[in-house]
Design a protein that fits this description.
The structure is a single chain. With 314 residues, the chain is an all-alpha fold. It folds into two domains: 4-54, no CATH class; 72-309, Orthogonal Bundle (MetI-like fold). It contains 16 helices and no strands. It has helices spanning 4-24, 26-44, 62-65, 72-79, 83-100, 103-114, 118-133, 136-147, 152-159, 171-199, 203-211, 216-241, 248-254, 260-263, 266-276, 280-309. It is flat, with a radius of gyration of 25 Å.
Length: 314
């Protein structure tokens, strides 16, 4: 235990350090202020509104004036008819996306890294980046056209023995269509960070591997993947922190009442309850539950990554 004099000396030391740092880096602190203000106003400020999850919120009475409801909204959600459906769908879609969409940009980056032709590499990157910059409404319209009866993807499925109906009218096909559209839309954009990480690997390691007789496949296993692993782990931890945040925009644009069985997720349920049925407190409680689960997954993934390979966010 530190004595009072030691604690006072430590506080004085930190005070002097901060004053000196401020005097040396005033411009850097000034540049940081807009970003700090953004997070305070748009990220931390709205957290105050989460209190309506514990109230029977009414806009006329305001947040402070609305009566206290405690945990009743959470209880209604957990005991509700739709809890099992929306939670199961959210977990399954999130896990499928993690299993198939998360590795896709890594594989693309590795393949692009092996291409020697700059022209072909640029062409591939441009083609794969393009869907990310297209409006989500347009993307969902294309997906619907391709999967409707007579669409090119539906015809391929039918030729392989699948149902000759619109895929998005069949609950069994919604999850594969959603995950495939996520890969198509995001693979190029998310590969950028991996391509940048590959460019930072020391070329002398490849030369040493070639001298030792390693072919391109062995170089990828022994040099490229180990060099890429820290970036992969950081991206994986960040993805775990958003695992259950299945975006309601694409879900709502793609789904319909006939496929709620497999398409309805927590975010779309919150949208219906909050903006259509005006049950703000209940939707806030559901959203808060979702955020707490994501936070727990983020902390767990960071802890496991730090224990296993010493890569972590903190």
């Amino acid at each position: 235990m530190l004595s009072k004099l030691e604690k006072r000396a430590e506080r004085t030391h930190w005070g002097l350090f901060l004053r000196k740092d401020w005097s040396r880096n005033k411009l850097l602190y000034a540049m940081m202020l807009p970003a700090l203000a953004y997070y305070l106003v748009f990220q931390y400020g709205p957290m105050y509104g989460a209190v309506i999850a514990f109230k029977d919120y009414s806009p006329a009475e305001g947040i402070l004036g609305s009566p206290w409801a405690g945990l009743s909204h959470f209880k209604d959600f957990f005991e509700g008819f739709y809890f099992e459906r929306v939670f199961t769908n959210t977990v399954l879609i999130s896990v499928y996306t993690l299993l198939f969409e998360f590795p896709a940009p890594i594989v693309l980056a590795l393949l692009i890294n092996e291409v020697r032709s700059r022209a072909f590499r640029g062409f591939v990157q441009s083609v794969t980046y393009m869907p990310y910059f297209v409006s989500l409404i347009v993307i969902c319209g294309i997906v619907k056209d391709f999967t409707n009866s007579g669409g090119i993807i539906q015809q391929i499925v039918a030729s392989l023995g699948g149902a000759d109906t619109a895929l998005l009218q069949n609950p069994d096909y919604f999850r594969p269509v959603y995950v495939a559209s996520e890969i198509w839309q995001r693979i190029g954009w998310e590969s950028i960070i991996y391509i940048a990480a590959l460019s930072s690997i020391d070329t002398e390691q490849y030369e040493a591997a070639r001298i030792d007789g390693a072919g391109r496949w062995r170089q990828m296993r022994s040099v490229t993947l180990p060099g890429l692993l820290p970036t992969i782990m950081i991206m994986f931890i960040l993805r775990m922190g958003n695992l259950l945040n299945v975006g309601f925009e694409k879900i709502i644009l793609l789904y319909n009442s006939s496929i709620y069985e497999t398409a309805d997720v927590i975010s779309s349920y919150v949208y219906r309850k909050g903006l259509i049925e005006f049950d703000w407190s209940f939707s806030a409680a559901v959203g808060l539950f979702n955020s707490v689960i994501n936070l727990a997954l983020l902390v767990l993934a960071n802890y496991l990554s730090r224990r296993v390979n010493q890569n972590s966010l903190w």
